[in-house]
Amino acid sequence: MTERKKFDKAFKEQTVEKILAGETTASLMAKEIGVHYSTVRDWLIAYEKDGSSAFPGSGNLKPEDDEIRSLRRELANLKEENEILKKAAAYFAKNQK
């Protein structure tokens, strides 16, 4: 089995920019670098959608995704705190009667 090729962000951006500039086509570029056409096509789609943040790298998130993850974590913490406060309020209301 062949080893999977890995390309860094700069290489992907250069490849996409050549295609967008009309210097080559996606299929020719795919043959040149030795990957399937769909790989280069996916790079193009990602670059057109996200621009310079299109290829965050392994284990990294796009800034928007990182913010969403952070907000979800904060929301979960706030929900937990809210439940604790509800229980405390019910406890103290019960003891006042």
TrEMBL record:
Q: Which GO terms describe its molecular function?
A: DNA binding; transposase activity
**SUPFAM superfamilies in the cross-refs:** Homeodomain-like (SSF46689)
The residues forming a coiled coil are 61-88
Q: Name one Pfam family in it.
A: HTH_Tnp_1
> What are the alphabetically sorted keywords of the record?
Coiled coil
Q: Which GO terms describe its biological process?
A: DNA transposition
Q: Which domain of life is it from?
A: Bacteria
Signal peptide positions on this chain? none
Q: Any idea what this protein is called?
A: Transposase
| Biological source species | Ruminiclostridium sufflavum DSM 19573
